[in-house]
Amino acid sequence: MLARFKSVLCFGDSITHGLKCAGGVHERYDRNVRWPGVLGNALGPNWEIIEEGHCGRTIDRDDPIKGARRNGSRYLHVCLETHRPFDFVVLFLGTNDLKACYTKSASDIGVSIEKLVIEIKTFIELNKIKAEIVLVSPPLIEENLALYSEKFRGGRRKSQDLSQIYNGIAERQSILFFDAAP
Q1: How many CB atoms within 10 Å of residue 72?
Q2: Model confidence over 84-120: pLDDT tens digits?
Q3: How does pLDDT run across 2-47, given as a tens digit for each residue?
Q4: Cα angle 170-120-157, degrees, rounded to a multiple of 5
Q5: pTM
Q6: Is the dihedral of CA 165, 167, 170, 174 positive or negative?
Q7: What does residue 181 show for φ and ψ, rounded to 5 degrees?
Q8: What is the Rg, in whole angstroms, of the alpha carbon atoms belonging to the chain?
């Protein structure tokens, strides 16, 4: 009998998707440049990396223009069902929740992401999957975002608090944590 590949489900936003903005044109970085591809190359050939990145995805908010399809909480359960069994779930959301239109504080974002962590933990337990969760706090919002500066107005200040909030969630929920801010 062949051993099953280990798999990592990467659930995130445009950072996971590998969005490359060049002069206002949205393209995607090559697979080996996107962070899930870099992870896969580092882990080796016995690992399957499942890229579930969607540009504009929020933790739990419908996009004011594009609607519910950007709401991570609406798609998470289907995603987990579709890709089971898996060995790791990397949850890398929160950047888009910093947009001014959502009026969420860093604490609000923490409450929302913890609900997704609990949903993943519950799914893992109910389906008797031996899997680990990795919660990733987003990188800091840059001061000069060019095309996006108005959308993320006030986001840098809030993004500075997410690392500590996400780390606290990881400790409370007994899951792994990675800080993408540095």
Answers
A1: 25
A2: 999 999 999 999 999 999 999 999 999 999 999 999 9
A3: 557 899 999 999 999 999 875 566 789 999 999 999 999 999 999 9
A4: 45
A5: 0.93
A6: negative
A7: -65, -45
A8: 16
